[in-house]
Amino acid sequence: MKSRTRGITAAVAAIAATALVAGCSAGGSGSGGGDGASATLTLGTNGEITSWDPGQAHVGHQLQPYQVAYDTLILREPDGSYSPMLAEEWSYNEDLTELTLELRDDVTFSDGAAFDGEAVKANLENLRDSNGRQSGQVAAMESVEVVDADTVTVVLAQPDPAFEFYLSQAAGLMGSPASLGTDAMISTPVGTGPYVMDTAQTVSGSQLVFTAREDYWNPDLQKFDSIVLKPFDELTARLNAALSGQIDAGLIDAPSVDQATGAGLTLIEDYRVDWSGLLLMDRDGVIVPELADVRVRQALNHAIDRDTVLQSIARGYGEVTNQVFGPDSGAYVDELDERYPFDPELARELLADAGYPDGFELPVTAIPGFESAMAVLTQQFEDIGVRVRPISAPGATMLQELADRQHATLIWNLFQGEPWVAINQMISTDALYNPFDSTSGELQTMIEAVRTGGDDSAELAQQVNDYVTENAWFVPFYRADQLYVYDAEKISVEPQVQQAVPSIYNYSPVE
Amino acid sequence: MIAFTLKRLGSGVLLLAVICTVAYALLFANGPSIARNIVGDQATAEQVAAKQTELGLDQPLPLRFLSWVGDAFAGDLGRSWFGPITVSDALVTRLPVTLTLIATAMIFVTLIATTLGTAAAVKRGWIDRLVQVGAIVGDAIPGFVVAVVLATIFAVQLGLFPAVSSIAPGAGADAWIASLTLPVIAIVLNYVTASAQQIRSAVIQQRERDFVRTLRSRGLGDGEILLRHVLRGAAPAGLTVLSLQFVGLLGGAVILERIFAIPGIGQLAITATVNGDIPIVMGVVVYTVALVVIVNLVVDLLNGWLNPKVRVS
Question: Which CATH class is domain A2-268+483-509?
Fold first, then answer.
């Protein structure tokens, strides 16, 4: 008996000793930014990108990593304005079908190749041919003409008001032509950017390590000696990593904000990128005849108490809205946010006028994760006599089911981007989120005006905004806050307008 | 024994074939959806069709499956659809991490459970009650709750351990120990009393057997009887529950790997499933089934060696 007890004691002592040893080494395994000489930025990301080939680049979360190793032709400032980057100047011809870019002549890729007009052509064509998630950014591109080593003209089949924007996004990422489309480029980026991947330290899905490139053409943009990206799918892990200092910044969720700020982290205020709400896609009444009447759709808008919805779903982190275009887009109309005040009585009147005094049944689709939105919506619609039939669509097949016109409505979040991007996302007849191809002659004319509007495109998009809001194409609830926290003792961060996470250039070390 | 081993390996291969076929059919059934999810919601219908052709999703399912099998035999499990890595690389870099976690945890579980279970069986009294109550409590509390509590207290608040794994290439043993301590403790707390309970019952049963009384009457000490005879008899029951737990951990460690961001197979599997990264999921299926077959075979051989009475003739 005695020997066994001693055995247990010994085992416990061994575990405790191991724990102490581990504890001693735990402190040093953080982001290593403490010793002054080398500043490392460690970011927690929401997941990992699919491929380092710029042809596969996406938006938001899936654009930020590319900025570490790649430059874009045009730099988008935090406030949305454009500055030169790899392109020093650019201008359109009169009918907006040719964009000529003057390129820098002092830039090389990390493999030594020179950056020139041929490289631009190769990259734009690579994006078009890669069938990537943002290949549509060059849909309007007809051809690329290399005028000389430092001059390129992109010929568009028709004007594209978002083209400059695209050249600051996926379409503007420039990789070394020799590597484009190769298997090697899938795992290792080769760009002109401020940092180069340290392949020895990099483990896909766990940590991506980059070190500052020595002969980078713009040392002002290299604010750190190294950048480490750590993908976390699991929010708990990302939050804990932020709380314990293992990452310098990352996205968290509403319930965790108090814990994060209580632990000393700083939350970026009013960082709004997405809108949340109900898409009333079946405006022609194919599945739900009642939705064909604009008064019915307007009634649904009046039935929602947006402040309550914002509080119960997002804990108040956001701003209520009645329109789907964002305040930074240029298509935003202040007055439209008063268009549909919470008024259940008016809603019932509108329904009665439309011929549905006893309400009707409304199928509402959502994928798992939107349960609280579904609950709030059901209760508020019930109050005006609209009986919600919830349809839970599996995440894996939902997009295809939308395309196949199986769903009349959808609770969803969409990012608010440039007006032309937003129109192609959910308003044009080609948009996936307009599966029933709702449109009208009036709307088509307005969309054409935006397309050919040049510098006035954004303002002309206000008409489109007016139209879809007045015709209650959607029931927007609120614009959600991006809950991005960071360690203000180590870094400072500026939010990037219309982008889910800040651009890499927006982070600076605190001296 | 050779014949036994060969027969078991043969049935293992058959099991692998059946499971892979079923998994493939289930995962790859909906071609257009798969393509759509990869090209995203900004893509046109033409892009979706082009992606389907690129991935061979417009081919008949049996043809695609045979092609996958052919490639798999050559060692090529394909590329991830959502990550910049081949399936083989993803599995090969992550399997050692998961196996280290599970093996370490199971060693501690085995040692502690055997000690606790035997003590409970021999001494009875408070240890016995502790083990029995502990088994129920351990079963009732979900593993991830224990993990989150440990992480919150010991990592985030007290800072004794890293909250998320710092395992990386070139990281020394100290990074591994630091990163795996809390997950191992979480597993041990969850599993140890259930095993201890099983071992306790088996030991009690053995001690009531006639041969024990005979040995005692021959003058053998309690300790010797216990170590050389009783434990051997209790071994099959113990090994069974421990091997079941090991296999269960292969799936159960996924939550822990997510919470502690450990770069193991479990985390890979969940991410791949959520994304719809089918090549990775198929790779995980293949590796996991193979592992389970091997573990079961090893346990059976161990059982046979420890206790000749259960040897298959």
Answer: alpha beta
Q: Which of A503, A501, A505 is nearest to A47 (CA)?
A: A501
Q: Are residues B27 and B95 in the same domain?
A: no
In three-state secondary structure terms, A108 is strand
Residue A54: its chain B contacts at CB < 8 A? none
Q: Which domain holds residue B107?
A: 88-275
pTM of the model: 0.88
Q: Which residue of A has its CA nearest to B258?
A: A234
Cα distance between residue B155 and residue B159, in whole Å? 5
Report the C-alpha gap between A392 and A406 in whole angstroms.
Answer: 12
Per residue, the 3-state secondary structure of A427-456, as one string, reads CCCCCCCCCCCCCCHHHHHHHHHHHCCHHH
Interface A:B, Cβ pairs < 8 A: 183
- Give A-chain residues touching B259 at CB under 8 angstroms: 234, 236-237, 240
Q: How far is A403 from chain B (nearest CA, A)?
A: 9
Q: Do residues B167 and A246 touch, judged by C-beta distance below 8 A?
A: no
Q: Percentage of residues in chain B with pLDDT exceeding 70?
A: 98
Q: Å from A359 to nearest chain B CA?
A: 33
From-to residues of CATH 3.10.105.10 in chain A: 272-481
At residue A22, the pLDDT reads 41
Query: Which of A131, A133, A429 is the mutation pick for testing B, counting most B CBs within 10 A?
Result: A131
The β-bridge partners of A390 are A364
Q: pLDDT digit string (tens) for A198-223?
A: 999 998 888 999 999 999 999 999 99
Interface touch A241/B164, C-beta < 8 Å: yes
B268 lies in the same domain as B142: yes
- 3-state SS string for A327-373: CCCCCCCHHHHHCCCCCHHHHHHHHHHCCCCCCEEEEEEECCCCHHH
Say how far apart CA A485 and CA A482 lie, in whole Å.
Answer: 9
Q: Minimal CA–CA distance to B83: which of B308, B278, B235, B243?
A: B278
Using a CB-CB cut-off of 8 Å, the residues of chain A touching B258 are 233-234, 236-237
B305 occurs within a structural domain: no
* pLDDT confidence of residue A277: 97
Which of B93, B119, B155 shows the shortest C-beta gap to A4? B119
Backbone angles phi, psi at B225, to 5 degrees: -55, -45
